[in-house]
Each structure stands twice: as structure tokens, then as C-alpha cells.
Amino acid sequence: MGGIAIVIVTYNSGREIGPCLDAALASGAESVVVVDNASADATISEIGKRGARVIANSGNRGFAAAVNQGFQATTSPFILLLNPDAVIQSGIEALRNASELPHAAGAGGKLIGRDGRPQIGFMVRNLPTATALILELLVLNRMFPWNPANRRYRALNLDYDNEIAVEQPAGAFLMIRRDVWEELGGFDENFAPVWFEDVDFCRRAVDHGYWFCYTPNAVALHTGGHSIPQIAVEMRQLYWYRSLLRYSAKHFGALSFRAVSVAVAAGSAMRGVVGVFSQAGLRSLPASGQVVRLACRCALLGRKQAEA
């Protein structure tokens, strides 16, 4: 399909990349590029069986850096960012058509689970506010999922049967216009190794006067979370909290950032205590302590601490 390239970032994705790549290669896209972040499993072999172009990094450069590599390796005006655990079920021209609408930065499609149901709450979200993140950090969104801040954040009330303007389509199945990617300077590689890089990109696009489109006419089966379990539990929380603080430092005011930092400290301490009684055991305590120290520095000293 003229004008569209597909970029897939892999990390130990050997079990998932086969069906994903088969569907991507059959989509008619003019090029498919896989950027591998030093997988230690059969990922490269599975890619090789299908003859797709692969950029094999010698180390894990992080998701944002790998995305930028993939975009730089293509020339198409529209690039579909696709997770290795997402399998295209439809044509992708609907994403291109939606991305061509005036002032659109790109478009996301419908993600369905193995049960065939749309992944509402994940496939589209509104950009997080400080209040939404604080409620998330303190587990209040899980305890009271229908609170107004959480309903708005997870876009629970949208009409997903129609094409609509949205703020943050999921990066698992997201088409981006090349000119917008270039204007914004690509993904911020400081969000390393993972989390909040796609949210940050959408935030910057919206701040520059763009919007994103959701279209139900492009569909992908998404199993989700294949790479997260490969990260040690204690490192997951460190990466997630650190990226959340970096996002908050970039996009929230000073008082809101300090409030989020306090919530990070409280939430991480709480999870660290709970972790002692879970399978992670005492392994989670050092990471929790590191997060609490970082969050306290941010609360006391301000946003520059999150960028250190």
C-alpha cells in the first residue's frame, strides 16, 4: 500500500512476532521494519524466516530510541507503529485516511482481545491530568473505577462505534504522520527504557495544535503485555515511576508536579510493603526505596530532579 510503512519494536518477542509480522507483510504496506533491542530468544530467527527487514541493536536502547530508528529507516509519509503482540485483522487504509484529515497528527484503530471485545480503557485514553495520576498512584482508580477523573482518563464514555477525535490512541496500533513526527523531533528518548514515551508524544502533538483520530474500521488483535513480565518486578516499578515523574515534570505546573511526586512516594512505599508479602518478596524493597528517594527529591527540589 503506497505511502505507509510499518515499524515494529521487539524485545524477546519470539513467541509473538510471527503472527504479527505475517499480517503486517500481508497488509500491503510498502515497507515493514523491525527494530530489535538485543533479544536473547528466537525473535531474530522468526523475523529471518519471513524475510523482513530488521535492525538488530547490540543492546537494549529503549522503546523510544528504537521507534525513532525505525522511523528514520523509512521514507513513507505515514508510519504505523505496531506492537509485536498486535495482529492486524483489517486493512490499514482507514488509518491513513483518518491521518489525512486536517490537523490530524495520526490515528489509532480498534484493539480487541482474544475474547473479541474492544479493549476499552486501553486502546484510547485522554491525556493524564495530575489528578488522574494521583488517583492511579494511590490505587483509588482501582478501588473506585467509576470516579469522574478515571472515567475521563480511560475514555470510558466514548462512542467507539464511530470515528471520533481523541487525545491519546494506544501506541500498540498507532499511525503517525511523518511530517508531525519530524516537527516534534520524534519520540523523547529520555523515557528509557519504557513507559510514557507515546503519551508524551501525543501530549506534545496536542500542544502543537494537532489532534488524533480513532477509527473503528482498522482492527488489530492485541494480546498485550508480552514484554513486561520479562522485566524483573522490582525494575518494572522503578522504570514506571521514573517515567511518570519525567512526564509530570515536562507537562505539569510546579505545584501539580510536587503533588504527583508526593503521591509517587506514598504509592511506591505502599507497594513496597505489599511486595514483601507477595512473590516478589524482599527484592522489591530496594527499588521502592530508590523510587521514594527520587520522589521526595522531586517534591522538595522541583522538576529538574526528574530529569537527572
Cα radius of gyration in angstroms:
19 Å
CATH superfamily descriptor of the largest domain: Spore Coat Polysaccharide Biosynthesis Protein SpsA, Chain A
- What's the CATH C level of the largest domain? Alpha Beta
Number of strands: 11
Average pLDDT level = 93
Number of helices, where a helix is a run of at least 4 consecutive DSSP H or I residues: 12
Biggest pleated-sheet summary? 9 strands, mixed
The total tally of domains equals 2
Series of H and E elements: EHEHEHEEHEEHHHEEEHHEHHH
Report the sheet-strand fraction: 15-25%
Examine the secondary-structure arrangement and name the CATH architecture of the largest domain: Alpha-Beta Complex
Shape: globular
Q: What's the CATH topology label of the largest domain? A: Spore Coat Polysaccharide Biosynthesis Protein SpsA, Chain A
Question: Given the helix and strand composition, which structural class is it?
Answer: alpha/beta
Low-pLDDT regions:
none
Report what the structure shows.
This protein is of the alpha/beta class and 308 residues long. It has helices spanning 17-26, 43-50, 63-72, 93-99, 130-137, 140-143, 148-153, 178-184, 197-207, 233-251, 254-276, 284-301; strands at residues 4-10, 31-37, 53-57, 78-82, 86-88, 104-112, 124-125, 164-166, 168-169, 173-177, 211-222. The mean pLDDT is 93. Helix 5 (130-137) packs parallel to helix 11 (254-276), helix 10 runs parallel beside helix 12 (284-301) and helix 11 (254-276) runs antiparallel to helix 12 (284-301). Helix content is 43%, strand content 19%. It has 2 domains: 4-120 and 160-222, Alpha-Beta Complex (Spore Coat Polysaccharide Biosynthesis Protein SpsA, Chain A), CATH 3.90.550; 231-307, no CATH class. It is globular, with a radius of gyration of 19 Å.
